[in-house]
Amino acid sequence: MFASPRRLSLRLEYEGHRPISEVLNAWPVLPVTLTSRVPSGLPHPKSDQQWDNRVAAFDSEHYNRISEIYIAEVTGPRWERFAAAMQKPFPDLTHLDVSMYMSRGSVPVLPDSFLGGSVPRLREFSLTNIPFPSMQKLLLSANGLVKLTLLDIPDSGYISPDAMATALTVMTKLEMLHLVFRDPRSLPDPAGQPPPPPPRFVLPALTDLMFRGVYAYLEDLLARIDAPLLDCLLVMFFKALNFGVPQLHRLRSHAGNFKAFDHAEVLILSDSILLDLYPQARAVNHRRRLAIGIDCTELDSQLSSLAQLCSSSFSLISALKELKVITESEYLSSSHRKDDTENTQWVKFLEPFTAVKNLYLMDEIARRVCGALQELSRERVTEVLPSLRNLFVYGSQSFEHIQEAMRPFIAARDSDLSGHCQPVAIRRWRR
Prior knowledge:
Shape: elongated
Radius of gyration: 26 Å
Strand order of the largest sheet: 1-2-3-4-5-6-7-9-11-14-13-12-15-16-17-18
Strand content: 15-25%
Low-confidence stretches: none
Oligomer: single chain
Structural class: alpha/beta
């Protein structure tokens, strides 16, 4: 085993139970994984000593053997000591995953000298709740990066779309990019004439993209990127959607993996709404999916945002065969008052789903959708959900009521002489 350490990817995992020199002297020369996979912020004499040993490892003669660093939920003074000890190059570092414990106080910003400003062998880089506004310099040296994950980015760690795009230009091996901002931060509108479109570059290996933030940031970033192999795209926008996202749709249309969706789920929560599209063979290829959500609390805003999103993605939505709409238990009945405006929003939301044959609704949602369908004129009855064959309802309390409420809609469809609509059956949804 020790004769072929690189072929076998052998590592020594060091948690700080003893000084690092005592540990390494008992082993052959192998790369070191420095780890604290449990929360590092709980005060305890034993954990304090372990933390001291970890920090001392960075100042030891063996620091250049550290190839992986995994530190979870650092707090207060420990973070300051850790960051100060990391102002030097780590020539063999391939993995860095550090998370800061979420606190109300401000977190010290990482300087541009972090990791010596250069990580040529880094493959996976993950920061959570850690401000690093000058990250661009470091990322430009990481041209072998495969995974870049920046979560809960605070305002003090804001990095502009231009700086992020510049850093991405060198990442031809990047497979996963996750950018999650903690709070909304709008981009200033440029004065005068809009600038010319930026030059676009290809991320040839990117398959997984996740983003949470303001739409203008994502649009600015995506205006510079093509990702032909993308097969997993998750986006969450702050606030209600009352704007277009042409660059997002361009990116999606250029990725061949997003052209064969036939199933969708809509998840309505107390603070957001999410549209999730995926192929029928999800169990086989669980990665391939497109999910777009909006952070908002009012049901009308949720439905209007989703209706706009579905209309702008018409080519995708119009091919779906199955739709499920689910919510938190008793959320709608306890949090929202139904009114005529909501009925209109439900109809606008359902209109683009022209190929849906199977519609799955939870109990409270089913009652609201039925109320909206009851108000359709005879001409409109054949235009909304024209391919619907089965309505599945989850929850036994209102099943008979929904059957009765749907009779006028079904009767109007049955009396249609154009032959565009099929008979609709109401069934119980057994989840």
